[in-house]
Amino acid sequence: MGLMRVVIQRVSGGVVAVSVRDDAGLSIEVVDRFLKHLLDSGCSPNTAAAYGYDLRYLFEFLSEVSAPWHEFRPALAVDFLAWLSARPNSHRGRGSGSRLSPATVSRALAAVSSFYEWAAIMELFDLGHPLQQKFDPALARVGSRHQPFAGGSSRQMPVRRDVRVKVPLRLPRPMEDADIAALVSGISRQRDLAMILLMLDGGLRPGEVLMTALTEIPQFCSLKFPTPGRFRA
After folding, report:
1. 215-228: per-residue pLDDT in tens?
2. What is the distance between the alpha carbons of residues 144 and 195, in angstroms, rounded to a whole number?
3. What is the DSSP string of 61-101?
4. Where is the Core-binding (CB) domain positioned along the sequence (predicted)?
5. Exposure string (b/e) for 53-63, b if CB count within 10 Å is 16 or more?
6. What is the pTM assigned to this prediction?
7. CB of 80 within 8 A of CB of 55?
8. What is the 8-class DSSP label of residue 27?
9. Binning pLDDT at 50, 70 and 90, where does residue 14 land?
10. Could you tell me which residue, 179 or 207, shows the higher pLDDT?
11. Cys staple from 131: which of 29, 113, 146, 193, with CB 3.0 to 4.6 Å?
12. SS3 content of the chain, % helix, strand, coil (to 5)
């Protein structure tokens, strides 16, 4: 079986359509409809393209097992997870023995989940979600999990998929000094500069900066704002 491919159509430099083609070069209509829905909904072209590449994995797998997309059941989802985990990584610069990373596998499962949610809404799929998500209150108590600034008042509910892969926790990478200098030098408004420096030098999160009142900073009135530059007394 030949590999499927993703075709990105551009007009005047802008992406107008993303299409997934099978090994015969024919468009997969249901995927193209879903990707068009993403673009029509305001998703960025890069997001739509990423979904296209992830759904390409699904349809390559379905082609190998000779299963139509509308018969993708939880049992097949388990096989799909194993197929993804064993798939060689064809990205340039990767070794010949490398596999898709857990983060890539998890992202592909998320894309497939969104695709079947859309298909159910469009009444194209009625077998029940193959990658069912369940409310998991215990997940919210995991210490290493990101906690939103609003804490328990956030509307985001902790969920866990029945079919999932363990993704290793990655430490955030600090910005290079040159990148920080470029960011600060490009800020023209003193308010924006103050907010950026509070996060950079004070370690505040965006939500904490937005909730900070000037009266909570006693030294604020004595600060001067050079343009561009850092705070100076």
Report:
1. 666 655 455 545 54
2. 27
3. HHHHTT--GGG--HHHHHHHHHHHHHSB---TT--TT-B--
4. 25-120
5. bbbbbbbbbbe
6. 0.61
7. no
8. B
9. confident
10. 179
11. 113
12. 50, 10, 40
pLDDT digits (tens, 9 = 90+) for 67-105: 999 999 888 988 999 999 888 886 655 555 688 888 889
Helices (H) and strands (E) in the chain, counts: 7, 4
Would you list the domain boundaries of the chain? 5-132, 177-222
CB contact at 8 A, 65 and 79: yes
Match domain 5-132 to its CATH number in 3.90.1150.10, 3.40.30.10, 1.10.150.130, 3.40.47.10. 1.10.150.130
How far is it, in rounded angstroms, from Cα 190 to Cα 231?
10
Half-sphere exposure (Cβ direction) of 174: Cα atoms closer than 13 Å: 7
- By the 10 Å C-beta count (0-12 exposed, 13-18 middle, 19+ buried), 14 is classed as exposed
Q: What residue has token string 């420096």?
A: 197
Cis? peptide before 68, omega within 30° of 0: no
